[in-house]
Amino acid sequence: MSKVGSIFFCCSSSNKYNRLDAKLGRKMVEVKRNSAGHDNFKSLNGIILRFPQFKEGLQNIRGVFEQYDEDSNGSIDREELKKCLQQLQMHMTEEEVEDLFHSCDIDGSAGIQFNEFIVLLCLIYLLKDEHSLTKSKLGSPQLEATFDTIIQAFIFLDKNGDGKLNRKEMVKALNEASPYERSPARITKTRFKEMDWNNSGKVNFREFLFGFINWVGVDTDDDLSPT
């Protein structure tokens, strides 16, 4: 298990993420239903081949992170997060802000570090319709396109459309690949294990994002990389 996984496992036992994860699950079900017949991916390798583009797009978040990290200490605290949400015209309750903060502060440092901020920003983007985030308010069409493609990668792997991934679905995604693109089964199982930090057999979108960032290899200032 990676360091990020072991940290998440320790933190997740309190069920304090349930509200946000349930909301994300419902949102992913809705997105998949609305995008039926418009799949961007046909195989797991199709996702992997896009990693260089994902990495480039996600690295562009560095400037956004530094903008909201007003004291330049390498993390975004609650007050800085609230200013970030105000700037993005996200109207959220205190409870929703706390849910968002806790769900991304997986190391319990009381601050959102760069890799955690990537997840946070993608979750904000996914939930934008619920909170009246204006179009292109993230300030980067390229970044929004990157998030859209990551969301589509999750949807491709979510074969039964329930807003979560399980290993059977990952194997099914592998088996449906072109014979020329098929990846070894051990890779699929390893990737799923990296995401399923609490060994529940299910992976929600937030867990997927943290795992995905590690796979892509986005440079971070912390030590939350796999050992």
TrEMBL record:
Residue ranges of domain EF-hand in the record: 56-91, 92-127, 145-180
SMART domains per record: EFh
Alphabetical UniProt keywords: Calcium, Repeat
Signal sequence region: none
Keyword field contains Cytoplasm: no
GO molecular function (one): calcium ion binding
Keyword Calcium: yes
Protein name according to UniProt: EF-hand domain-containing protein
Species, as recorded: Cucumis sativus
